Amino acid sequence: MQGVLLVDKPATWTSFDVVNYVRKIVANDEGKKPKNVKVGHSGTLDPFATGLLVLLIGKDYTRQATKYTKLDKTYEIAMKLGYKSSTGDPEGQIEEVLGSEPTKEHFSQVITEFTGVITQVPPAFSAIKVDGVRAYKLARAGQEVNLEPREVTINNLSIISYDFPDARLVADVSSGTYIRVLVEDIALKLGTCAYTTDLRRTQVGEFSIDKAVKIDDLDIELINKNIIK
Q1: 21, 63, 119, 124: which could form a disulfide with 139 (CB 3.0–4.6 Å)?
Q2: Does residue 60 carry a catalytic annotation?
Q3: Do 125 and 199 have their domain in common?
Q4: How far apart are CA 194 and CA 100, in angstroms?
Q5: Do 9 and 98 share a structural domain?
Q6: CA-CA distances (angstroms) from residue 91 to 5, 51, 74, 144, 194?
Q7: Confidence class of residue 63 from pLDDT cuts 50, 70 and 90?
Q8: Tens of pLDDT along 174-219?
Q9: pLDDT tens for residues 92-143?
């Protein structure tokens, strides 16, 4: 089997959980061991996040992984101002922080400052490797993690709703953009803190969440019906 499969990743599942699940279904159908079936994805989603995961099935497609990972992505973001998380998301230690209560006008104005090419420092709790070790493993072990700033592009950033302390945004971003960092940096510019409470990926390049299959419905028949070649 060769092709691209769009999956709507549920919360609590890791991206590897989804890959492993699909690999087992394909392996069973082809009479192979799972380790002999090539399945990958085009960009990790955090466990708390949901939405579009682009799976690459078969050697012809996993070999092209770089082409897919470089595609722009669109996210729906929920953030809570006045609080911070040790991981930037709901899985960390949450702490309320005294700070300003931005008006909607101030929030709208600051949002415009985060479009175009911006610089981000990747979060310690990320999959970036430091001397061959994933940064999040070092962070969980209590070790200091220093990552180099990098440039990313925010193509579009718009407000869905704002009712302090809660805000919802839509972001169209380049590959390599960390939404958790974007949320924290916006809050810092507003004179407060924030963390990402919910995150859903709706678009990867030309691929849309509307064409994605649900994990609960997944079987070999559905994969054959929806695989893109």
Answers
A1: 124
A2: no
A3: yes
A4: 12
A5: no
A6: 28, 18, 22, 19, 14
A7: very high
A8: 999 999 999 999 999 999 999 999 999 999 999 999 999 999 989 9
A9: 999 999 778 999 999 999 999 999 999 998 776 656 665 566 656 756 666 6
Three-state secondary structure along 152-200?
A: EEEEEEEEEEEECCEEEEEEEECCCCCHHHHHHHHHHHHCCCEEEEEEE
Question: Which token pair is 44?
Answer: 């990790």
Catalytic site residue from 46, 89, 172, 185: 46
Q: Report the run of H or E that residue 78 belongs to, with start and end.
A: strand 73-81
The pLDDT value recorded for residue 194 is 97
**CA count, 13 A, side-chain hemisphere, 104:** 10
| Pair 143, 183 in one domain | yes
Domain count, the chain: 2
**If you ran DSSP here, which 8-state letter would residue 74 be given?**
E
Give the domain range for residue 219: 3-71+206-226
pTM of the model as a whole:
0.91
